[in-house]
Amino acid sequence: MTTDQRTAFDTRFAELRERLAEIQDLTSIGAVLGWDRSTYLPEGGAAARGRQSAVLSRIRHAKATDADLGRLIDGLERDVEALEADSFEARLVRVARRDFDRATRLPSDFVARMSRHTSETYGAWTKARPANDFAAMVPRLEQTLELSRQYSAFFPEFSHPMDVFVDGSDEGMTVQKVRAVFAELREGLVPLVRAVTERPEPRTDFVGRAYDVATQLRFGESVARDYGYDFSRGRQDLTAHPFMTRFSIDDVRITTRVQENDLTDALFSTLHETGHALYEQNVDRAFEGLPLARGASAGVHESSSRLWENVVGRSRGFWARYFGPLRDTFPQQLADVSEEEMYRAVNVVRKSLIRTDADELTYNLHVILRFELELAMIEGTLEVRDLADAWHARYESDLGMRAPDDRDGVLQDVHWFGGLIGGAFHGYTLGNILSLQFWDAAVKAHPGIPGEIERGEFGALRGWLTQNVYRFGRSRAAAEVARNATGSELTVAPYLAYLRGKYGELYNLS
Amino acid sequence: MTTDQRTAFDTRFAELRERLAEIQDLTSIGAVLGWDRSTYLPEGGAAARGRQSAVLSRIRHAKATDADLGRLIDGLERDVEALEADSFEARLVRVARRDFDRATRLPSDFVARMSRHTSETYGAWTKARPANDFAAMVPRLEQTLELSRQYSAFFPEFSHPMDVFVDGSDEGMTVQKVRAVFAELREGLVPLVRAVTERPEPRTDFVGRAYDVATQLRFGESVARDYGYDFSRGRQDLTAHPFMTRFSIDDVRITTRVQENDLTDALFSTLHETGHALYEQNVDRAFEGLPLARGASAGVHESSSRLWENVVGRSRGFWARYFGPLRDTFPQQLADVSEEEMYRAVNVVRKSLIRTDADELTYNLHVILRFELELAMIEGTLEVRDLADAWHARYESDLGMRAPDDRDGVLQDVHWFGGLIGGAFHGYTLGNILSLQFWDAAVKAHPGIPGEIERGEFGALRGWLTQNVYRFGRSRAAAEVARNATGSELTVAPYLAYLRGKYGELYNLS
C-alpha cells in the first residue's frame, strides 16, 4: 500500500472497529440481562425481561446486518490482501465477514419468528419437564425442527443440512468429520466402560453427607482462585444450570449450584466454569471490545473447562494437594475418609441417565447419542413424535438403562427446547478430546506441571494455555489453534490413552 | 373526529406507543446495568460497564430524539385537542412532548460525554471517599459543574440556570418556589431543633449492640412484606447506598445496607425504599412499558418513602405492633428495653454530620444546606475548590458541628459525584412536606388507619395512596396529584404541625 492507501485503509478500519465494538457492547448488555434472568430475577419479572432482551437483540441485529457494514467489509477484504494473513487487521476482517454473512443470510422476519418461537418453547419446556409431558412438546419441537431446516436452507453452500450448525459453533467442522471422530471414540469407549462397570464400585457414601452450602462454595472459590481465576474481574453466583458469561475481559462471571447432600456437585461445576472463565480472562487485551475477544469455538472452550475440571481436578495430584484442606474444612464429615478414597470417589464410573451428572468416562456416550438423534431428525430418519422412544432405546443399547419417564429422558436438557435442533451437543465431546491434546502438549513443554499441581501451583499450565490457546481468542479458527499448539488437528488417540491409563489403574483392568 | 379521522389517529397513536415502549425498554435495560454496577459488579468490570451504559444511552437518545417521533407528536398534539384533556391519549402525548423536548435539546455527543464523565466520576468517588481525598475530586467536579452549566444553557426558557434541573425532577417547581418553601420550613425548624436538642437525650445504648446482619435483613423484609411490597415482583440486595430501581411494574427492586452494630440503619433504609417500591408496584397497569409508568416527581416519590419510613415506621402505633416481634428476634440484646424506650430511640434528635443518618427533624437542615450550596455553585458565587470549606462552614452555622474530614463532609453523598450538580437534593424535603399532606388526607378519608397500623395492617393506607397518588404514575404532574388528593398544592403547615406535635410530646416541650 502507498501512504495514501494506508491512510484511507486506517480510516475504514477504524470505522469497522467502531461498528464491531458497538455490536459487541450490545452482545455484552444482552449477556447482563441473561445473567440477571438466571441469577436474581424475581418471578414476576420474566415477561418484561423477555421483551427487553428482544428489543435489544432486534437493535443488535439491525447493526450487525447494516448494509454499510457489509460494504465496509467488502472494501477491507480487498485491502487486507496486501497485509499478512496473520495480521490483526486481516484476522478481524475475516471474523467480521463470517459474522456478517451469518447474520445477513437470515431474513429479519425469520429471525423474529425464530426468536419468538424459541422463547415460547423454552417457557413451555419449563412447564413440560416437571409435568413429564413430552407430548405437549411434540408440536413445538416439530416447529423447531422445521425452523432448523429452513435456517439450514439459507446456507446452501454446506453439503449436509446440519453442517451449518456444526460449523457455526466449531468453524471448519462437519457432520462427516464429527461422525468419524465419534465412531473412533465410541469404539474405544464401549469396551472400556463395560470393563470398568463390571468391576466393584469404590466407596462413595461420604459424598452424600451434610456439607454446609456456604462453606462448600467458599472451598470451591478458593480452588478457582488457585487455578488463577481473578475474582477482582469476576464472581460466582448461584443458578439452576451453571454457566460462564462474559461482559468484558474484566468481568467474566461464573455460576454454580450447590446441594447440602453432595460434596462434589458444586465443586466440579465451579472448576468446570472456572476453566471457561480462565479462557475468557486471558484473551489478548488487544481484542477487547471486538468479536475476537471470545473463544475460538465451542469445542476449544469446552476443552478448557474439561481440562480444569477433569484432567486437573479429578487427578491424583490435585487430591494430594486438596484433600487435606477439604478435610480441614469438613473434619467431622471426612474423619473416616482417606485421600485415596476421595480420589476414587470423584472418579467413580457409573452408568446413569443424566448427562450433567455423568462421570468423565460415560459422559461421552450421552453426547454421542444426542448427536446421532439430532442428526437423524435433521436427516428425516427419525420423527419428532418418536424421539422419546428413540431416546429410551439408545439409553438401553448404549448405557444399559432406561429412564422411568421423559423428565429424565428426552426432556432433561434445555438445548433442543431453547432454540435449534442440530449442533448443540457435539462440542462437549470435541472438548474432551482436545483437552488431552492440549494437556499432553503442555506437559511436554513443561514436564514439571504434574508436580506443580501437587503443590497447588497452576502457573505453568495456565501460562502454556494462555500462550498457545487463550490469548488468540477468536482470531484463529479452532483447527489452526489445535494444529499450532499440539502439532496435529483433532485426534482421538491421546484422549483414549488417558482414559485407558487412568481408569485401567483405578479399576485394576489388565 | 370522524370515523376516518379516528382510524388515522389510532394508527398514529399506536406508532407512538410502540416507539415510546422501545425507549422505555432501553431505559429499563440501562437500569439493569446500573443495578448490577451497584450490587454485584466486580471491581475490574467498571470500565467496560461505563462503555456499555454509554452505548445504550446513545442508542436510547437517538430513538428519543428521532425527528419522526417529533413529527408524530406534533400531529398527535393537534389530534388530542379533540379528546378530553384527562384522556389516556392526551396524557401520554403530553408526557411524550415533555420528554421529547428535554431530549432533543441535548446534542448526542454531549449526552455521550456526560454519560462517560458520570461513570468515571462515580468510579473516582468510590476511591476518593474512603481515601478522604476531596482534592482528587475537584477537577472532576469542576467538569461536572461545567457540564451542568452547559446542560442548562440548552434550555434558555428557564429564568434561573438551576430551574431546568428543579423542573426536571419536579415539573412546575422553580428555584424561587423552593427557596420560599425552604425559608418557611427553616423558620419553623430552627427554633424547634434548638428546643429539642436542649432537652436530655433518650436512651439509645441498645441500638449499637451486636445484631446478626442476616437476621436484621429478614426482619426488615418481613415488615416490607406487611407494608405490601410484593417480593414476587421485587427483591432486596445490598449496596453502599440504598436505592429503589424499576425494570418493569413486575420487577421493582430495592437495596439496603446493614451493619452489625446498628439495629435501625438497615430497617429504616428498607422501609424507606419500600415506600418507593410501593409507588412503582401500584402504578396503573395500563401505563406499563410507557413513560407514564413512573412516579409523578422526585418530591412525590420521596413523599411515599418518607411516609412509610417516618410517619408510619417511626410512629408509636408501629412500635406497638413491631416491638414485640423485634424483641422476639433479638431477645438477649433487647431484654432490658421497653417499647417506649424503643419508640424514643428511633426518634432521637441529634445534631449530626451525615444526612442519611439524620433524624426526621434535623434531616431537612442537611437538605436545605446542600440545596443552597449547589445553588451557589451554579450561580457562580462558590468555586468547586472552596466547596469542602463552605460545607464545613454551613454545618457549623446550621448544626453547630464540623466533620473531622471530607469523607464525612462533602464526599458523603454520591449525588454530585454521580451526574449533575443542581436539583439533586431538594426533592427529599419536598417529599417530607408532601408526606404529611397525603397522610392527613388519608386519615381524614379513613380514620381507622392509625388503629390499623397498631395491628400491622396497612391496606387502607396503601389503598388510599394507590387510589389517589400511585396509580396515576406520571400521567399527572405533581402539583395536580397533590391538589386532587389533598385539596391544596405544596404547603408547609401540616408538616410543621406534625413535627411540633410529635417532638413536643416526645421532648416535653411546653
UniProtKB/TrEMBL annotation, chains A, B:
Pfam hit, one:
Peptidase_M32
EC number(s) on file: 3.4.17.19
Residue sites binding Zn(2+) per the record: H272, H276, E302
The entry's free-text remark on the cofactor is: Binds 1 zinc ion per subunit.
Where would you find the membrane-spanning parts of this chain? none
One GO term in the molecular function aspect is: metal ion binding
Q: Note the superkingdom of the native organism.
A: Bacteria
Cite the InterPro entries for this sequence: Peptidase_M32_Taq (IPR001333)
Among the GO biological process terms of this entry, one is: proteolysis
Q: What class of enzyme is it?
A: hydrolase
Required co-factors: Zn(2+)
Q: Which reaction does it catalyse?
A: Release of a C-terminal amino acid with broad specificity, except for -Pro
Q: Which UniProt keywords apply?
A: Carboxypeptidase, Hydrolase, Metal-binding, Metalloprotease, Protease, Zinc
List the catalytic residues.
E273 (proton donor/acceptor)
Q: Which family does it belong to?
A: Belongs to the peptidase M32 family.
Q: Describe its function.
A: Broad specificity carboxypetidase that releases amino acids sequentially from the C-terminus, including neutral, aromatic, polar and basic residues.
Protein name (database record):
Metal-dependent carboxypeptidase
